[in-house]
Amino acid sequence: MANTEATLALVTRFENEFNTRDLDALMADMTEDCVFEHVAPANAGFGRHEGAAAVRAVWASMDSHFPGFTQEIADLFATGDRACCRWVIRWKDADGNDAALHGVDVITVRDGKIAEKLTYGTL
């Protein structure tokens, strides 16, 4: 079982890396056989993505779904190798209006990296 403090540090770094758009950094924090599953929003190609190449492709597409987005951590807690992170992604929609996606990640860490990220969000 992973150390809770190490899990918190990893997940905090990972969630904040979305703001840098650094795909290499994001993927360095994930296992080669990682799984990313998300159920919303539909316009973001929701579904299950398995393996580093498939997950990387989703991260690379985020700006096309949420142009100029920023992500904020609203709450984060962990125990051992499991974490839950509540976050908000903010961007401007096609009409220039403020838009936001609120969500929760349920994360499993294995060998110091994120092995599974299950995301549940709503606009």
Give me the secondary-structure topology.
Blueprint: H1 4-17, H2 23-28, E1 30-38, E2 47-50, H3 52-65, E3 70-79, E4 82-92, E5 98-110, E6 113-122
Query: How many domain regions?
Result: 1
Give a short account of the largest sheet.
6 strands, mixed
Main sheet: strand order: 2-1-6-5-4-3
Name the helix and strand elements from N-terminus to C-terminus, one letter apiece.
HHEEHEEEE
Tell me the structural class.
Answer: alpha+beta
What's the gyration radius in Å? 14 Å
Question: Can you describe what's shown?
Answer:
The protein is an alpha+beta fold and 123 residues long. It has one domain (4-122): Nuclear Transport Factor 2, Chain: A. Helix content is 28%, strand content 46%. The chain has 3 helices and 6 strands, in the order ααββαββββ. It has helices spanning 4-17, 23-28, 52-65; strands at residues 30-38, 47-50, 70-79, 82-92, 98-110, 113-122. A 6-stranded mixed sheet has the order 2-1-6-5-4-3. Strand 3 (70-79) and strand 4 form a beta hairpin. The longest helix has 14 residues, at 4-17. It is globular, with a radius of gyration of 14 Å. The termini are far apart.
Which key phrases capture this entry?
123 residues, alpha+beta, Nuclear Transport Factor 2, Chain: A, 6 strands, globular
Short characterization:
The protein has 123 residues and is an alpha+beta fold.
